[in-house]
Amino acid sequence: MALVVALCVSNVFAQEARTKVEQKPTTEFSLSAQSCAVSNSNRNTIYFEDFESTSNDVIPATWTVSHTGTAKSWMTVGSEGIYTNSQGQPNSNIPGMMGGITPTYAGLRMLCLPWQQTGRNAWTFSEGINLTAGTTYQISFWLEMPGYFQGGLNEYSGLECKIGQTNNAAGMADAFEIYYNNKTIVVDDWTLITKSFTPTATGAYYLGFHCLSASGTGTYTIIDDIKIEEGGTPPPDCDPATNLQVAYTNDCKAELTWDEPAKGKGNQWLTYMVGDFNGGVGLGQPADLSFAQRWSPSDLAALGIVAGNKVTKMKFFFSSGPYNPSGGGPQTYIEAATYEFKIWQGTSSTTAGTLLYTSPPLASATLDDREWNEITLATPIEIDPSLELWLGVRANMTAGAGPPCPYGTGGFVAGVNKMLYQGAWANIEGLIAGFTSGNWAIQGFVEGDGPVLSYYNVYRDDTKLTSSPITEKTYTDAGFNTAIEHTWAVTVVCGTDESDPITKTLLACKIPCDPATNLTVTFAENCTSADLAWTQPAPGQLYNIYRDGAMVKEKHDATTYTDTDLNAGEEYTWSVTVVCEAIESDPVTKTDKCEGINDLGLSTFTIAPNPALNEVVIKAGVVFNTIEVVNFLGQTVISKVVNNSSVKLDVSNLNNGVYFVRLVSENGTSVKKFVKQ
């Protein structure tokens, strides 16, 4: 048994009385396809055209038209009259052609490009409409453009809609909506088309509508109630990146890192379908089939789907018919069927994984015909982004010959449209050779807690650095002027929306200079001062000098220095750094003590253990009043009144490193070093 493809016939032209055709039993059916197509505001209206002031066969005086050959041109028509085709014969009354559906503002008249057997290639342009640069506008109009089956031909039209600053085809720069898919566009019912548009220049803009169909094809195209309003639909919120860090490398490149937006990923409908509903796939007889679309882990990652996102809603397009089988023959219908939504996850790209969800069955008689039918999952299904995600529908047709598995128009993606046929999953293009008509008309809503992140842009001083989108959260900038201050910024792009920037400013990049070397210390005879000397890395340098982590001299301009106010028997550590444009080199250090006469009785104090982990015991030969522990930066981290010759200190909370213990008595101080591990 093989699948068949059928095209859905416009309901406008379908006979209400359906002719039942006896199906002769056979042992072989061909899997074939069958087609058709289908989609408000408190703003300041600056332009509105409803064509009510025109008369038959003409357009508004301020509009223009352009068409090739003998093709019939754009005109206005009304419900009170009948217009003629290219052969001078009357065509159908307009309201009847529209199926009795009326736009929100519709009166009696509307813009129309009639059907013509010789084909159509015609533009019409609006009058100039003054728009202001930087202001967002919403453009909207109502459209009907059906396809139908007549005389053995499927007849379709293409429509191209644009806006530009000159009223000709070459001047139509911005396509604000396109229904132009290989001239097989079908809009059976009145559909409201909307688009936000922000001009870059102030001046007059023209709307352009271009209809095209091949010879012998193409139905009428009708447009009404064209409106431009200030204040288009605002873009979705796009949260900024977080935690931007910028650091210079040793060669003065700027390395940027950041984190993704705090709100994470966002809400979106998952589907491969593009365009409108076009037709269906079935067996041409009652059958139980399942169809699904799949997303791999890399597909999910590209869409910004992360752990914790959930499928909360699903929908598919249902049309009972009529359908035109691709091989010819009578029109068919879906007379009775039940549908079940399903969700699978697994590791295989060729067969569905674990079934996670099945909806209650939906009878075709209860579904909205020629509409999207949507359900909300009673219990949302959490997505594991490390697995394949399959969203599908089981279509169990018990009566009729119409195809129960719907697909859209164009944009076909190979390898993602799956069908459960004869007990096995397969790609639809493998089951129907050459099938590229469209992707399954099914969607699943994934709920997150923020907008969908597309990529990042990086800027330096308001200049965009990223010529192509980047998705990694790192960037290395080079080739800029390192002698001045710079500000870097990162923005998040979600669809067409760009977030506020997160910024970081760094001073000029200064490459540290080479350190001094060969530091020596020579004590005075009374141990109250010490002469320091070192070797310079280059002539003309400045030096910062430290004793026990505290600066004693800043930007010293010689390679010798005398440090005073020292005590005999105390151990000191000196450090000298080279200063290059406010950046200090690594230090050169020297630790020493003067073994001169000491009357304090403190020179023999001990620290044990040294190095220490949690506590140290300090013992001296005399009573001391206070004890201080100082870090390498000269900061006092412990200070206690003792009045004893020994004390036990808890050092467990100190960071690892070198510290100095200072004992203070009435007669003076003594210092020794210990290491905290």
Distance between the termini: 79 Å
Range of strand content = over 45%
Low-confidence stretches: 9-42, 80-106, 148-155, 180-186
The CATH topology annotation of the largest domain reads as Jelly Rolls
| Shape by Cα distribution | elongated
Supply the CATH class of the largest domain: Mainly Beta
Main structural class: mainly beta
In helices, the fraction of residues equals under 10%
Query: What count of structural domains?
Result: 5
| Rg value | 40 Å
- CATH architecture descriptor text of the largest domain: Sandwich
H/I helix tally: 3
Number of DSSP-assigned strands: 51
Oligomer state of the chains in this structure: single chain
Note the main sheet: 7 strands, antiparallel
> Mean pLDDT, as a whole number?
78
